[in-house]
UniProtKB/TrEMBL annotation:
Protein name: Cysteine--tRNA ligase
CDD domains: CysRS_core
Motif 'KMSKS' region per record, residues: 266-270
The enzyme's E.C. designation: 6.1.1.16
Description of how the protein assembles with itself and partners: Monomer.
Placement of sequence motif 'HIGH' region: 31-41
Species of the source: Geomonas terrae
Enzyme class: ligase
Residues binding Zn(2+), per UniProt: C29, C209, H234, E238
GO terms classed as biological process: cysteinyl-tRNA aminoacylation
Length: 480
């Protein structure tokens, strides 16, 4: 089965056929660097990192470009508020973005261009649009004529006449049409600026992506990605200005990830349900957050809640526990002959690669792919005590290959389990020393056949979400 992707432009799934065989050009809109990133940014970047990884796993040579918008009204407003130069704001939050993405285990893109480093390319593109009659100067500003471009709104499937009739757009006497958008903005007093044929100013938001994508990927490339909120106006305007300038199709496949909701409500600062990545990672492990973001199909909305994060944590722990069990068996070195349980595990192990690929080839269906991993883990748990060591080694290798492709299960299992235990114990009301003391007291009570006291201790700890696990080597504990 070939890879099929959902193309927003055509509204359907299509077979993915790169423009140049064996190579893929992919551009994903980055962040405007004026504040800390929120979990919506986390989702978009994890999604396209997963796509980047999977395309590489299929043997394709991927040139991945993700930009930084480092000049914008929001950056200027933040700089004015803080009383610092605009570039101090942009550099600070580029650094913070990079830290967040590293914690979420993102691979570095091939190129990470900044808008301010490509002013000559932006000016050249604007000049070309003016020469072709698609843009016009008005005062110190330059605007794009949307009515001149016949394909305008083909991505969002909107109607220009309806939009104009129903629009509540601030009157701007500089524009020929209220829907025209800025390619270049004349500088206001005190604003940062660059010299241009139209006077001192700075680029509009949309033009930077057209200029940078064409520089690194050419006039036409394979994949353009971003969140659904970017379909209009940002991506729509990119198409208009890029195709008007080059006369060529801009992008072959448009991919957009779904929104993040908070407890079933749209995430919004005004609703007070807005969480930065840093805030979330104070409470949850970064790998858990990444696992959660991949647990739903990338085009579907995903509901962020404590309950769903805890379920993701439990799911990831199930995989790690199976891997830890495999490591313990391999370290022990005791082998076994095949059994009925191991025969089932061998069948599941033999087909997991094909099942994973089938899921991912269906428009990067990570939810289904993770379901296949859980199916394999269930077989591991049943067969673990009796499975041959060679089979367990093969299972570990298969899970490892899938893990690299998804960017999860990247830790040593024992270290991950300890990390989870440490995080949970740090939030407990009862100190670890008290838990250990009660377990020791319980052991003495059991030795003295005082089972009433033994049960009391067990129940008392359970009320504090501490689960005791009795085994041949003694009693261990975990947080419920």
């Amino acid at each position: 089965m070939p890879l099929r992707v959902y193309n927003t432009l055509t509204g359907s799934k299509e077979e993915f056929v790169p423009i140049t065989p064996g190579k893929v050009g992919m551009y994903v809109c980055g962040v405007t660097v004026y504040d800390h990133c929120h979990i919506g940014h986390a989702r978009a970047n994890v999604v396209f990192d997963m796509i980047y990884r999977y395309l590489q796993a299929k043997g394709l040579e991927v040139t991945y470009v993700r930009n930084y918008t480092d000049i914008d009204d929001k950056i200027i407003n933040r700089a004015n508020r803080d009383g610092v130069p605009y570039n101090e704001i942009s550099e600070r939050f580029i650094e913070e973005f990079d830290k967040d993405m590293a914690r979420l285990m993102l691979q570095l893109p091939t190129f990470q261009p900044k808008a301010t480093e490509h002013i000559p390319e932006i000016i050249s593109l604007v000049e070309r649009l003016i020469e072709k009659g698609y843009a016009y100067q008005s005062g110190g500003d330059v605007f794009f004529r949307v009515e001149r471009f016949a394909g305008y709104l083909k991505l969002s499937k909107r109607n220009l006449d309806d939009m104009q009739a129903g629009a509540r757009i601030e009157v701007d006497d500089k524009k020929e049409n209220p829907m025209d958008f800025a390619l270049w903005k004349g500088a206001k007093p005190g604003e940062p600026y660059w010299e241009s044929p139209w006077g001192q100013g700075r680029p509009g938001w949309h033009i930077e992506c057209s200029a940078m994508s064409s520089k690194f990927l050419g006039d036409t490339f394979d994949i353009h990605g971003g969140g659904k909120d970017l379909v209009f106006p940002h991506h729509e305007n990119e198409i208009a200005q890029s195709e008007a300038a080059s006369g060529k199709p801009f992008v072959k496949y448009w991919l957009h990830n779904g929104f993040v909701n908070i407890n079933s409500e749209k995430m919004s600062k005004s609703l007070g349900n807005f969480f930065t990545i840093k805030q979330v990672l104070e409470r949850y492990d970064a790998e858990v957050l990444r696992f959660f973001l991949l647990s739903a199909h990338y085009r579907s909305p995903i509901d962020f809640s404590d309950q769903n994060l805890k379920e993701a944590e439990l799911g990831l722990e199930r995989i790690y526990k199976a891997l830890a069990g495999i490591d313990e068996r391999l370290a022990a070195g005791t082998d076994h002959a095949p059994t009925a349980e191991s025969a089932e595990l061998e069948e599941k192990c033999g087909t997991i690669a094909a099942r994973f690929t089938e899921a991912m080839d269906d428009d990067f269906n990570t939810a289904m792919a993770l379901g296949h991993i859980f199916d394999l883990v269930r077989s591991v748990n049943r067969a673990l005590p009796v499975a041959p060591l060679a089979l367990l080694t093969a299972v570990k290798e298969e899970i490892g290959r899938i893990a690299v492709t998804l960017g999860v299960c990247d830790s040593v299992p024992a270290e991950f389990m300890q990390r989870m235990k440490d995080r949970k114990t740090s939030e407990m009301e009862i100190p670890v020393e008290e838990i250990e003391a009660l377990i020791a007291e319980r052991a003495e009570a059991r030795k003295a056949k005082n089972f009433k006291r033994s049960d009391e201790i067990r129940d008392m700890l359970l009320e504090k979400d501490i689960v005791l696990l009795d085994g041949p080597q003694g009693t261990t504990w975990k947080v419920k």
